[in-house]
Design a protein that fits this description.
Elements lengths: L1 H15 L8 E14 L17 H17 L11 E7 L2 H8 L9 E5 L9 E7 L3 E9 L3 E2 L8 H8 L16 E2 L4 E8 L2 E9 L7 H25 L5 E6 L7 H6 L2 E2 L10 E2 L2 H6 L5 E3 L2 E3 L2 E6 L11 E7 L32 E8 L1
Parallel strand pairs: 1-2, 9-10, 11-12
Antiparallel strand pairs: 1-17, 2-4, 3-4, 5-8, 6-7, 8-9, 10-15, 12-15, 13-14, 16-17
Helix pairs in contact: 2-3
């Protein structure tokens, strides 16, 4: 832990000038990672998981790969692995238990918060946390009720949508009778980070099936559910420190995030009860977490409430963030050279997304 203080104190001194050279800071890495189809070796008859069931060998390789990544996220500035990490596209608690027991992560003693969601593919969100630093005090899964205007077979829009799917992740979600889309719940966890209350929402918003414009209202509904949750928490705690993170299937510039969630890309534009999105400037700089048709986008985001960006560091505040992009996480050859090194043609890679992270710091 002392090493954490000294390393960060040196870095911060270069930012804040000579007066900061004698100050030491605690640091925690908060991360999010869409781990892409992290299934187990069992075919679950209750979900549509047949396509992704792993062999025992491939499952072990997937676990090993993901553990390697998680153990290293943010370690360029902080020698400790993420204190808290949100995950998307995990099948169940069993895969998480295998993950946290991997030798690369076992010493971190990660706890698990996970609920089964109604997603038809059986994928959920989850939160891992280092027990010595973060102690959950409450957690709940919040369902997202959304309906598909394009689901009916006689709909002309449905015919167009079937020809214009951006990805296939939600192709089995719609209930043909009710038109409800059974998507991922939003996971809300509140706890004490070294004694300070911090809340987290882990998201995996509806995909862009049918195209960005045709499906935008689904992600706007997901953002509105975030707003409702955050507003209710603000009524309890006007100094709410909350981080909402996830694969939002929208960029920082889209309506769901800019208009509905109201996230700002500059700290000075964030007002009381507002939200700051450090990923907006990264996106403008051309940084991305996933590639499609030779273009990068930044769908994986970490967004913070205003109390986390205040200027004093007597309590935990946001310092900076980034995308964890290492050479081994990218395809090194072939048609998709430079794309994320995902599961492909039977080969077990890492994920089709890159992880994102932020640092929270506090003056010691």
């Amino acid at each position: 832990m002392i090493k954490n203080y000294l390393t960060l104190a040196f870095v911060i001194s270069t930012l804040f000038g000579l007066k900061a050279q004698e100050k030491q800071f605690k640091v925690h890495t908060i991360a999010f990672y869409n781990v892409e189809n992290f299934y187990d070796t069992i075919n679950d008859p209750k979900t549509n998981d047949e396509e992704w069931v792993y062999t025992a060998k491939n499952f072990r390789k997937k676990v090993n790969n993901l553990a390697k990544v998680i153990s290293l996220i943010g370690t360029d500035e902080n020698p400790n692995s993420p204190t808290v990490i949100g995950l998307a596209e995990i099948e169940n608690r069993r895969v998480l238990e295998a993950l946290v027991k991997d030798p690369q992560l076992a010493s971190k003693d990660y706890g698990i918060v996970q609920f089964d969601s109604p997603d038809r593919r059986g994928i959920d969100t989850a939160l891992l946390y280092q027990k010595k630093h973060f102690k959950p005090t409450s957690f709940i899964n919040i369902p997202l009720y959304i309906y598909d205007d394009f689901a009916k077979p006689d709909s002309k829009k449905a015919a167009v949508a079937s020809l214009d799917k951006v990805d296939s992740e939600d192709n089995s979600e719609t209930d043909n009778e009710s038109d409800r889309i059974y998507t991922r719940d939003q996971l809300l966890v509140t706890g004490l980070l070294d004694g300070e209350e911090v809340s987290f929402i882990v998201n995996h918003w509806p995909s862009r099936r049918g195209g960005e414009a045709a499906s935008s209202h689904l992600r706007e509904a997901a953002a509105a559910l975030n707003v409702k949750t955050i507003d209710s928490l603000y009524k309890i705690n006007p100094d709410l420190k909350l981080i909402t993170m996830g694969d939002l299937n929208d960029g920082p510039y889209n309506k769901s995030i800019k208009k509905v969630l109201g996230a700002k890309g500059k700290k000075e534009d964030v007002k009381a009860h507002g939200m700051f999105n450090p990923m907006e400037q990264m996106s403008k700089d051309g940084v991305g977490t996933l590639a499609y048709r030779d273009a990068w986008d930044l769908f994986d985001q970490i967004i913070l409430t205003e109390p986390l960006i205040r200027k004093d560091y007597t309590t935990y505040r946001y310092w900076k963030g980034g995308v964890f992009k290492k050479p081994y996480l990218l395809q090194s050859s072939g048609q998709y050279k430079g794309y994320p090194n995902r599961n492909w043609n039977g080969d077990i890679g890492y994920s089709d997304h890159l992880p994102v992270y932020v640092y929270l710091i506090k003056q010691k």
